[in-house]
């Protein structure tokens, strides 16, 4: 997912009203979805990030799933590995560097589908955005790339330890590309993995994708709850005539409701880009029985629009609370956040 940076004009009204009373949470608190784990505090998509997010109070943890050469689901933000691992510094893998066209974009680097799991195990994770999160960089080199099975095992251990259910919210990354480029069917892989891990449709799990056909296939073959991700730009790579902006219209949402249980829209679709008032998207989706889980709530200046940035550079906390409270007041059912601890604190303070 891209950074959810809103336009300056979108926040003018909010910034002018910072001294106004903050809105209270809705009667039903929204789900807290740990975006790539506690990625504001640990390098994303590591067991350490997922474990910390659970300890901080997340209801769900979100692993982005890519695939190894030997067909193992592992968690990385992208199948290209150099942004999140030390692969570029590993001489033994220098000859694995490739150029690939992924979803219409030319990408150079090292790709998970060209490595076996045992080879991937030799790599170590690193912070993807050290300019915004320099504190996370101190953990570079400590953690391996986790498999989906290991993430599930961690969740079960933490459930036993905490006595509460913890949900999974996997995203299938680039399914069309993997099928066309490497002959890897991610739908087959995730359904087989869930069966082998004894995770049923009654368990707390959502499966998400930016692609339409992937979710439609999952809908035909399973009863898992499915979420259509909706990007601020372009359209689904597997539906070239479809635009994401049209998918949040009443007719577009009705089409989504035929195969999915919810939407994961960019936050700008939920808050009006001119007034920061609620749009009709949440109400329109709810009228069709769709849940709404916008992304992504973050606190650092480097992820916030200019009017909500404070002094101190990209890593300093901005004036994020007002934006988060405005988002919560939209009535959405849950939110992806990199900062679980701060979200929990905000929710508790607003509920007092």
Automatic annotation (TrEMBL):
Transmembrane segments: none annotated. InterPro entries: GP_PDE_dom. Its EC number is 3.1.4.46. It catalyses: a sn-glycero-3-phosphodiester + H2O = an alcohol + sn-glycerol 3-phosphate + H(+). It holds the Pfam family GDPD. It comes from the Bacteria. Residues 1-26 form the signal peptide. Keywords: Glycerol metabolism, Hydrolase, Signal. PROSITE patterns: GP_PDE (PS51704). Residues 30-347 form the GP-PDE domain. Belongs to the glycerophosphoryl diester phosphodiesterase family. This is glycerophosphodiester phosphodiesterase. It comes from Erythrobacter ani.
């Amino acid at each position: 997912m891209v950074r959810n940076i809103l336009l300056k004009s979108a926040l003018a009204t909010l910034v002018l009203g910072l001294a106004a009373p903050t809105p209270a949470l809705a009667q039903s608190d929204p789900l807290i979805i740990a975006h790539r784990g506690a990625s504001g505090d640990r390098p994303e998509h590591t067991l350490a990030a997922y474990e910390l997010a659970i300890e901080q109070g997340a209801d769900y943890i979100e692993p982005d799933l890519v695939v190894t050469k030997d067909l193992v689901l592992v968690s990385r933000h992208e199948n290209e590995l150099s942004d999140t691992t030390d692969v570029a510094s590993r001489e033994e893998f220098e000859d694995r560097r490739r150029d690939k066209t992924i979803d219409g974009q030319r990408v150079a680097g090292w790709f998970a589908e060209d490595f076996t799991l045992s080879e991937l195990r030799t790599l170590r994770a690193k912070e993807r955005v050290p300019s915004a999160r320099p504190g996370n960089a101190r953990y570079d080199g400590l953690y391996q790339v986790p498999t989906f099975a290991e993430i599930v095992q961690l969740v079960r251990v933490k459930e036993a330890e905490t006595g509460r259910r913890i949900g999974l919210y996997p995203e299938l990354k680039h399914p069309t590309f993997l099928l066309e480029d490497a002959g890897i069917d991610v739908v087959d892989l995730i359904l087989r993995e869930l069966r082998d891990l004894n995770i049923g449709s009654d368990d707390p799990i959502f499966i998400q994708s930016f692609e339409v056909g992937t979710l439609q296939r999952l809908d035909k073959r399973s009863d898992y709850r499915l979420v259509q991700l909706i990007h601020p730009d372009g359209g689904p790579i597997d539906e070239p005539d479809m635009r994401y902006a049209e998918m949040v219209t009443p007719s577009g949402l009705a089409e989504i409701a035929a195969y999915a249980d919810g939407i994961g829209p960019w936050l700008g679709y939920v808050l009006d880009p001119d007034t920061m008032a609620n749009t009709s998207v949440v109400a329109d989706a709810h009228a069709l029985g769709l849940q709404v889980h916008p992304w992504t709530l973050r606190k650092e200046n480097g992820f916030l629009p200019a009017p909500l940035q404070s002094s101190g550079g990209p890593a300093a906390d901005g004036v994020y609370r007002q934006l988060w409270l405005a988002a919560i007041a939209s009535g959405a059912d849950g939110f992806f956040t990199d900062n679980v601890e701060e979200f929990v604190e905000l929710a508790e303070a607003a509920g007092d």
